[in-house]
Design brief:
The chain is of the alpha/beta class and 357 residues long. The chain has helices at 37-46, 67-74, 150-161, 184-190, 200-207, 218-225, 258-264, 276-279, 294-300, 319-329, 341-347; strands spanning 2-9, 14-21, 26-30, 50-55, 77-81, 91-93, 98-101, 104-110, 119-123, 128-132, 135-136, 139-140, 169-172, 182-183, 247-248, 254-256, 269-272, 290-291, 310-313, 335-338. It has a six-stranded mixed beta sheet with strand order 1-2-3-4-5-6. The chain has a six-stranded mixed beta sheet with strand order 7-8-9-10-13-14. The chain binds glutathione and fe (ii) ion. Residues 12, 60-62, 133, 139, 141-142, 174, 176, 212, 215-216 line the site of glutathione. Fe (ii) ion binds next to loops.
């Protein structure tokens, strides 16, 4: 079965696409964002997928790719257009290449015009295509920087994208209004820059007069993306929490296992957010846990020491996840949730104070 997810980076309005093959467990990511690497890694882990390759539709001007960082983590190949001029990739793609994931693949089409190295990726059965910044929903990529050329872009759209089946779904690299998907038939008819009877000269006239401000990140993003996202100073970016072996979840929460808590217990504050009757009830509580019921936490957070890590605990790990969010909002930066709460703590055989059925 095909696994497909559309993810957004709200800062740059960039869409990242996950495509996976459930049978083999292989997955690829299209157009990752450096700052979203943790999120993407968490999703891959939770879906049980193995990242084999990250692919870029082009050298982006508005955000830095996560390709290099994901390669450090998963050993995934980096792929982008040969015409991109980038260094540090494992595969340099040209028109007609295929990118496999399990039994599925994407076909590579060269669609220059926004940049020289712009590619569109078409799924094997032509049911979906990833157009990068060549064709946007009711729009198109701009042509006023990098190697932009409206004449080249017009021809790319008409010869490579508009000739796909009408019902082929199109997924762009960005949308600035929150729109998520379109189709070939729709854009052929309704794209206000490129659809209907609009000719190459009309399109060039439109594009040459857009007068858009340059992307805020362009001076940082383009040089970094020409290195496939490898930072100039590698040391600064890999700062993960070190006070315990934590896992970041796709839900956005740092967690630790009962075993990890037992090992870190002397260095952390254990915060139990259940009600007093539960704390002294049949499940018991963890030695040295401080009881602050969830409903009073926002007001009483100051009794905790901000200089020491906090691990939140409840019955099953649900309410304590909310406690983590409350503490983060209150400015605590070393906070994690005990995965599975007291239920898992006990099931894994860790000691409790009180309790008993
Ligand atoms: N305000 C955005 C501008 C982003 C931008 O210029 N995006 C390019 C893609 S790299 C584009 O083609 N935009 C088309 C448009 O805005 O119509 C930023 O600062 O990042
Ligand atoms: Fe772009």
């Amino acid at each position: 079965m095909l696994i497909f997810r559309q993810l957004i980076d709200p800062q740059s309005s960039t869409y990242t696409y996950l495509l996976g093959d459930s049978k083999s467990g292989e997955a690829i990511l299209i157009d990752t964002v450096f700052e979203q690497t943790r999120r993407d890694a968490a999703l891959l882990d939770e879906l049980g997928l193995r990242l084999t390759c990250t692919v870029e539709t082009h050298v982006h001007a508005d955000h830095v790719t996560g390709a290099w960082l994901l390669k450090q983590r998963f050993g995934s190949d980096i792929a982008l257009a040969k015409a991109s001029g980038a260094v540090g990739a494992d595969r340099y793609l040209v028109h007609g290449d295929q990118i496999a994931f399990g039994s599925r693949h994407l076909s590579v089409r060269a669609t220059p015009g926004h940049t020289d190295g712009c590619l569109t990726f078409v799924l094997d059965n032509e049911s979906m295509a990833f157009t990068g910044d060549c064709l946007l929903i009711r729009g198109s990529g701009r042509t006023d920087f990098q190697q932009g050329d409206p004449h080249v872009l017009y021809r790319s759209v008409h010869s490579q994208i508009f000739r796909l089946p009408e019902e082929c779904l199109l997924y762009p690299a960005h949308d600035y209004r929150g729109l998520t998907v379109t189709s070939v038939g729709e854009e052929r008819r309704f794209n206000p820059r490129l659809g209907g009877e609009i000719g190459e000269g009309d399109f060039a006239g439109y594009m040459d007069n857009m007068n858009l401000p340059h992307p805020r990140q362009i001076d940082i993003a383009v040089p970094a993306n020409l290195r496939c996202g490898q930072p100039e100073n590698e040391a600064v970016v890999l700062s993960e929490p070190t006070w315990a072996p934590l896992t970041y979840t796709f839900a956005g929460i740092w967690e630790l296992s009962p075993q990890a808590l037992e090992e870190a217990a002397t260095n952390v504050q254990i915060l139990d957010v259940r009600e007093p009757a539960e704390f002294d009830g049949p499940l018991g509580h963890i030695h040295n846990a401080k009881l602050i019921p969830l409903g009073t936490l926002a007001k009483s957070a100051d009794v905790l020491d901000r200089g020491r890590p906090v691990v939140a605990v409840c019955r099953s790990g649900g309410r304590s996840a909310q406690a983590v969010a409350i503490l983060q909002k209150a400015g605590f930066d070393q906070v994690a949730n005990l995965a599975g709460g007291m239920l898992r703590w006990r099931a894994d055989g860790h000691p409790v104070v009180g309790g008993g059925e």
